[in-house]
């Protein structure tokens, strides 16, 4: 492990909103493996001010397990949209028990937003971007209040806007840490085996990427990694990663 840091061991809260800080962190952390990067971010740079956001989807177990190895008390935010597969909710509970995470937070949409915009629960059909906005984007904004940084499980091989994903970026006044950005699908599979992690039950029946039930379909194994999400629509992302300042 090589560190050439010129950054204070604990960054001041205001600095977390600075793109320059994110750039410096990326430069300084270039030689750190994913687990080392996580350890540094959680314990040295953003102690008590960083959370993991997880969908508990097809590949989520790898990052959840890594975070638990670093600190199993770190807050884990799960956007409970009210539209998840039952299998996902059961898998979430099983994984949490298995890994030993102690602070998993179910974040739900505001009742008034649902009553005003989606009383019948079918907004996903007519206006999926708006549905994601009230069920994911707004609740996440609230859930992240008080945090200067968050960890995501996105990878470059997932394609689309993720192809140039840095391991550390700045967006909406926070630093986003993507420890697995440069991992391959094979490395994810290897990690499942090496750590004997349980797989999401829907991956055994043809689902490659798993989000809300109405917007997720099975796909072929040779399809793109995020095939099956918002089938037949232009939409490829839910909106929580819509803005950002990236480089590379
Ligand atoms: S993924 Fe679909 S159901 Fe879930 S919040 Fe977005 S549009 Fe709504």
Task: Record keyword descriptors for this entry.
248 residues; alpha/beta; Rossmann fold; 8 helices; 6 strands; disordered C terminus; binds iron/sulfur cluster; phosphoadenylyl-sulfate reductase (thioredoxin) activity; metal-binding; cytoplasm; Rossmann-like_a/b/a_fold; PAPS_reduct_dom
Describe this structure in words.
This protein is 34% helix and 9% strand. Mean pLDDT is 86; it is low at 1-9 and 244-248. The chain has a six-stranded mixed β-sheet with strand order 3-2-1-4-6-5, with helices on both faces. It has one domain: HUPs (Rossmann fold). It has 248 residues and is of the alpha/beta class. The chain has eight helices and six strands; from the N terminus they run ααβαβαβαααβββα. The longest helix has 16 residues, at 128-143. The two termini are 22 Å apart. α2 packs across α3. Iron/sulfur cluster is lined by residues 81, 83, 124, 128, 131-132, 135-136, 211-212, 214-215, 238.
């Amino acid at each position: 492990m090589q560190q050439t840091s010129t950054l204070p061991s604990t960054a001041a809260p205001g600095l977390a909103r600075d793109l320059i800080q994110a750039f410096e962190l990326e430069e300084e952390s270039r030689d750190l493996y994913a687990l080392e990067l996580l350890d540094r971010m959680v314990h040295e740079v953003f102690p008590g001010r960083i959370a993991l956001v997880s969908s508990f989807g097809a590949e989520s177990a790898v990052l959840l397990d890594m975070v638990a190895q670093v600190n199993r008390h770190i807050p884990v935010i799960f956007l409970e949209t009210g539209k998840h597969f039952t299998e996902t909710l059961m898998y979430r509970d099983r994984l949490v028990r298995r890994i030993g995470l102690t602070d998993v937070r179910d974040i739900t949409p505001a009742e008034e937003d649902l009553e005003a915009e989606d009383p019948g629960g079918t907004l996903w059909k007519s206006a999926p971007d708006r549905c994601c906005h009230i069920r994911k984007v707004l609740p996440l904004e609230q859930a992240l209040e008080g945090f200067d940084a968050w960890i995501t499980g996105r990878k470059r091989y997932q394609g689309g806007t993720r192809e140039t994903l840095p391991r550390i970026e700045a967006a909406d006044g926070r630093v986003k840490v993507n420890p697995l950005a440069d991992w391959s699908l094979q490395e994810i599979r290897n990690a499942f085996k090496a750590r004997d992690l349980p797989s999401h039950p829907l991956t055994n029946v043809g689902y490659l990427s798993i989000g809300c039930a109405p917007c997720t379909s099975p796909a072929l194994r040779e399809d793109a990694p995020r095939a099956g999400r918002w089938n037949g629509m232009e939409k490829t992302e839910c909106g929580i990663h819509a803005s950002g300042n990236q480089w590379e």
